[in-house]
Amino acid sequence: MVWAIGAVATVALAASGFIWQKVSGMQEQLARQSADAGAASVEARAMARQAMEQTRETAARQALIEARLSEVSLQRTQLEELMQSLSRSRDENLVVDIESALRLAQQQAQLTGSVDPLLAALRSADQRIRRAGQPRLTPLQRAIGRDIDRIKSATLADLPALLVKLDELVRLVDDLPVANAVGALPAGGRAAVDVRAEPQAWWQRGLAVIGQEIRGLVRVSRIEQPEAALLSPEQSFLLRENLKLKLLNAKLALLARQLESARADLVAASTALSKYFDPASRKTQTAASLLLQVQGQMRATDLPRLDDTLAALATAAAGR
Questions:
Q1: Which one of 55, 156, 217, 256 has the fewest beta carbons within 10 angstroms of its own beta carbon?
Q2: pLDDT of 44-66, one tens digit each?
Q3: Contact 178, 276 (CB under 8 A)
Q4: CA-to-CA separations, 17 to 26, 112, 222, in angstroms, rounded
């Protein structure tokens, strides 16, 4: 029993030592693992702190990048608006210049009675629009083309030729014979006597001369207008001046493009010519022919207007 108890005690003691040794090893291992875990924890905290700092730094950088991106986007928008504003301003200046040039050409055409200033201004405007290359000005370009075609097809009176004929009429007025003017005397004198006739007595020659003088005092003619027969020389002078005045008024009315007034003055001049002047005279017939030519060449066609182009300019200026 003693030996058995001793053996059991020895085995128990040996097992206790072994267990103690094993526990001690486990404690050491646990201590080492705990130390390693603590070190890992510290390192993890450091890494977490570093990661957090990097996260903050990244967030700050991202915020800065977003701010700069927003600033760049704003600058781009402002630049686009500025470019559009400059483009609109250039187009508006072009539209204003074209409108001013066309209105000046209209005034020149009114003064000269010619469509050449209008055609020149429209062609210049078309070239400027082509060089600009703006699609929003395409309707204006089409309107200019329509006005050019309409002006080319318009027929106008030849104003310089009409003015020349009126000047010629004014020069002819002083030489026009009035209806009650005394006719030309026969060649050779008022009482011409044929010296080659056979000799006659002095009293016969005297009677012949007296007879010719008496016949020269009487003139028989037909005057359709009684007023013409009652004109005195002073009234004839005023009649000529009045006729000149009507012709000059017609000339001024043509220059001012007042066709109705010019036509009325020419009708009054034609009436005075046929009423108070000798219709059998060649000069009167020439003046009447010139008056008919002037009246026939005066057409009621006014200068063509630039309605399409001006309407397109107004639309372009309004930005539509």
A1: 217
A2: 888 888 888 888 888 888 888 88
A3: yes
A4: 14, 138, 181
The number of beta carbons lying within 10 Å of the beta carbon of residue 266 is 24
Q: pTM for the whole thing?
A: 0.44
In a domain, 257, yes or no: yes
Residues 213 and 265 in one domain: no
Here the tokens at position 219 are: 């003139």
- Tens of pLDDT, residue by residue over 134-169, are 777 888 888 888 888 888 877 666 677 888 888 999
Classified as helix, coil or strand, 301 is coil
How many residues comprise the chain? 320
Sorted by sequence, the CB contacts under 8 Å of residue 101 that are 6+ apart come out as 121, 124, 125
Residue 108 CB neighbour total at 10 angstroms: 15
| Whether 200 and 251 share a structural domain | no
Range of the domain at 272: 157-180+232-300
**pLDDT of 189 strictly over 50:** no
